[in-house]
Amino acid sequence: MTQAETSVDFVRGIIADDNRSGKFDGRVITRFPPEPNGYLHIGHAKSICLNFGIAAEFDGACNLRFDDTNPSKEEVEYVESIQEDVRWLGFDWGQNLFYASDYFGQLYEYATQLIENGKAYVCDLTGDEIREYRGNLAEPGKESPYRDRSVEENLWLFQQMRAGESDEGTHTLRAKIDMASPNLNLRDPVLYRIQKETHHRTGDEWPIYPMYDFAHGQSDSIENITHSVCTLEFEDHRPLYDWFLDELGIYHSQQIEFARLNLTYTVLSKRRLIQLVEEGYVNGWDDPRMPTISGLRRRGYTPEAVRNFCDRIGVAKRDNTVDMALLEYTLREDLNKRSPRVMSVLDPLKVVIENYPEGKSEKIVSVNNPEDMSMGERSIPFSRTVYIEKDDFREEPPPKFYRLSPGREVRLKDAYYITCTGVVKDETTGKVIELRATYDPETYGGTSVDGRKVRGTSHWVSVDHAVDAEVRIYDHLFAKEDPDVVPEGGDFKDNLNSESLVVVSAKVEPGLDKAKPGERFQFLRQGYFVVDPDSTPEAPVFNRTVALRDTWSRMDQSRKKG
Ligand code: ATP
Ligand code: MG
Q1: pLDDT tens sequence across 358-393
Q2: Is the CB of 34 under 6 A from ligand 1?
Q3: Boundaries of domain holding 220
Q4: Which atom of ligand 1 is nearest to the CA of 233?
Q5: What's the structural domain count of the chain?
Q6: pLDDT class of 154 with cuts at 50, 70, 90
Q7: Which of 44, 52, 228, 257 to mutate to test ligand 1, by most ligand atoms within 8 A of the CB atom?
Q8: DSSP letter (8 states) at residue 222
Q9: 306 and 236, same structural domain?
Q10: What is the 58 CA–ligand 2 centroid distance (Å)?
Q11: What does the pLDDT average to over 255-268?
């Protein structure tokens, strides 16, 4: 068990303390503030579970607020997908849906107030010049030559900017703080920029837009957020947010920073995920290889598994990287309980059972989930010719291989014992293309009357009854644990795994053609699968959600031993 499962995390600890001291009169209002410039990923799920989870536990509320201050990167498609994903995860913001763009008027007034108080000025430096003047950690910055403009001139210029009279890049509004501050965020940050672009909600009403830093803290304040929980990179921005709130004399939320989620074998950054989508490395935001919520959903993840994962990793103050194997372990744990077992053969080899009557078929009864008998049983047709997995046969079995080989008897799961009596090979390639076998009619159900044991059991599908299906087998999106490890001059995309998707033509149990998109199964011995939205009864498509092999629990055990 991780620490998070046994103790309360530090964020909840702070909130409990605040409730005890009456700091916010016992109110708890959190928010999840995505910028609608991409689809949500599993890192966001961590933040969603934390913010909505806290609101529920403390009998408070969690706002969904779109931080939509940059019209050039934001789209309605993202606003919609984000809402769908938060709901899918199982959270509800009720009436509390907000947009930073709703506060553009108020933010403009705040900016004017700062100008009037001599705390902000209009600057004519270009973006490059501003960067140059900012200095760096070793050197103090240089003051802008426009820093000492009069309040009147600043007000007039800011109004000109607002009226659309100034061109993009000619002016910015900057806070007048301290160009020598050791915190670069306090070196006269830009508050407003001119951007003549249409905003997804405010249209062409504004030719100027507030910077994220100028909008974020004030939006929290306007919404009366008590605890503004964010990732560690905003720790250095907190003094700036405090400066704004103090100078404006408005309500303060308490900002609390926690470590963002990093996962092995993937990237969690919208900027990078956008590249993968736009440059065609994946088939869209919901490609099942993507770490996006929509990708996980299409891959067959359950919201419960994602939430359990977020509980399990907990919330800490120091950055770390979580092993993808832990996510997959948590997923298997959940799928194991809920998935009916079915048989499918991914790489088929035909077996003709020569003493089984031609034309006959019979029903084999199989339990749907040995972990949950309430899921009942089903019957599967058996006949003279069946497919087994190519891998379940070896002409020359190595040691410890207990499945079929010439002369050996094995069990066909829930059906009969069969013995391999012959091998048919392709004359030119010499490859095994078919097996001959006999069965023992006294072993119906997969147990022998005389108590004779076999060591191997194979899953199978009757050739006459099998359904053809496309099966998409997914692997890690990146071949390296840390996709950022690249040779000089390389790029994270160089580490994409060329085998992250393998498509196979499989033979699946009859009835699976009627399964609906989103339905989940365990294909015996192959893993957990979900019906893809592309699937139709005529052409079923399954995605492999995760293999059965459980590296995490093995690692966990060896850790315990060691
Ligand atoms: P990205 O780096 O993927 O672009 P972002 O931080 O720019 O993410 P936002 O839309 O601003 O994306 O994020 C909304 C919220 O989700 C923020 O409060 C942010 O701190 C949180 N968040 C983003 N990424 C992670 C992560 N990997 N782990 C935990 N929380 C995250
Ligand atoms: Mg952000």
Answers
A1: 999 999 999 999 989 999 999 999 999 999 999 999
A2: yes
A3: 3-258
A4: 20
A5: 3
A6: very high
A7: 44
A8: H
A9: no
A10: 26
A11: 98
pTM of the model: 0.93
Give residue-wise pLDDT tens across range 72-130.
Answer: 988 899 999 999 999 999 999 999 999 999 999 999 999 999 999 999 999 999 999 99
Query: Which ligand has the minimum distance to the alpha carbon of residue 43?
Result: 1
Specify the pLDDT at position 76.
Answer: 94
One-letter-per-residue 3-state SS of 412-445: ECCCCEEEEEEEEECCCCCCEEEEEEEEEHHHCC
Domain identity same for 233 and 253? yes
The CATH number of whichever domain residue 421 belongs to comes to 2.40.240.10
Distance in angstroms (rounded) separating the CA atoms of residues 133 and 129: 6
Instruction: Say if 265 falls within a structural domain.
Output: no
Q: Would residue 464 count as lying in a domain?
A: no
Whether the CA torsion 159, 160, 164, 166 is positive or negative: it is negative
In a domain, 521, yes or no: yes
Give the three-class secondary structure for 344: strand
pLDDT averaged over every residue in the chain: 95
Are 217 and 297 part of one and the same domain? Answer: no
pLDDT of residue 473: 97
416 and 527 inside one domain = no
Can you name the residues that pair with 467 across neighbouring β-strands?
Answer: 508
Ligand 1 and 291: CB distance under 6 A: no
Kindly state whether residues 96 and 184 are assigned to the same domain.
Answer: yes
Of 54, 68, 82, 231, the one to substitute when testing ligand 1's pocket (max ligand atoms within 8 A of C-beta) is 231
Which residue, of 258, 285, 310, is where some domain finishes? 258
Bridge partners (DSSP) of residue 63 are 31
